[in-house]
Design brief:
By secondary structure, the protein is mainly alpha-helical. It contains 4 helices and 2 strands. A hairpin with a 2-residue loop joins strand 1 and strand 2.
Length: 143
């Protein structure tokens, strides 16, 4: 029915989809700017994150950092104790030869100094630490 797809073969409807993304480590700075031009920032799935929230987070960070740089301030990166910071750290540390896009997950967060044995308590402690760190990050952005 669609002329351009007259000879297309569908392996399985709705199961094959591929996103374009950068292999961030060799191509970008820690705050996701182009190494050769720090005012060119990347965001969304192009950075190598998967998911709507993850993409929104990188977009917000790109906007904040461009705003800061246009005012003569250095770009900032959230701490690795926050989910956005953990994702950025993954993008920077992943093996470029085997890079795969990543969703947010607790395994990306810096470990707790003394993690509780109880899973629910551990998640709560990670969340509390992340909220405190994000508060400090927001204060740094505003400065």
């Amino acid at each position: 029915m669609i002329p351009g797809l007259a000879r297309a073969e569908f392996l399985r409807y709705g199961s094959v989809h591929r996103n374009a993304y950068l292999n961030a480590r060799p191509r970008s700075a820690p705050h996701l700017s182009l190494r050769d031009d720090p005012q060119v920032l990347f965001a969304g799935q192009l950075t190598g994150v998967e998911g709507y929230t993850e993409s929104l987070g990188t977009g917000l960070l790109a906007g904040l950092n461009l705003w800061r740089m246009l005012r003569g301030k250095p770009p900032l990166v959230p701490p690795p104790t926050t989910m956005l910071g953990g994702l950025l750290q993954y993008l920077r540390r992943a093996d470029p030869a085997h890079f795969q896009p990543m969703n947010a997950n607790a395994g990306l967060l810096a470990p707790l100094e003394r993690p509780p044995r109880d899973r629910a308590l551990k998640k709560e402690a990670l969340a509390e630490r992340a909220l405190a760190a994000m508060g400090e990050f927001v204060r740094a952005v505003e400065a």
